[in-house]
Amino acid sequence: MSASDEERRHRKAVAALDAAARRDGVRQLVQLERLAGDVLRQAAEVFGSRETAADWLMRPAMALDRQRPVDLLGTAAGKEQVELLLIRLQYGVYT
Q1: pLDDT value, residue 95
Q2: What does the pLDDT look like over 16-30, one tens digit per residue?
Q3: pLDDT digits over 31-61, tens only?
Q4: I need a labelling partner for 14 at 20 to 30 A (CA). Which of 31, 37, 46, 58 fits?
Q5: How many CB atoms lie within 10 A of CB 14?
Q6: What is the 3-state secondary structure (H, E, C) of the chain?
């Protein structure tokens, strides 16, 4: 599968996630778990709960050039950026 196909599939999944968030927060969390997986678990460790982690993933982050972390998870480079930011937050090295 080419990167562009993977990115398109990710954008479609994020659009479904956004729609689920508008309908039902529980459904959003289930879809986010499928989409973000390990990153959601890592964020939950940093923020103390899956719900807070999910909220963080869905909001623009200043350290990610005001992009939502969930939007970056469609590429290996974007996922790496999000994971690195979570490590920085965990250790208090937020820039």
Answers
A1: 58
A2: 777 777 676 667 777
A3: 778 878 899 999 999 999 988 999 999 999 9
A4: 46
A5: 19
A6: CCHHHHHHHHHHHHHHHHHHHHHCHHHHHHHHHHHHCHHHHHHHHHHCCHHHHHHHHHCCEHHHCCECHHHHCCCHHHHHHHHHHHHHHHCCCCC
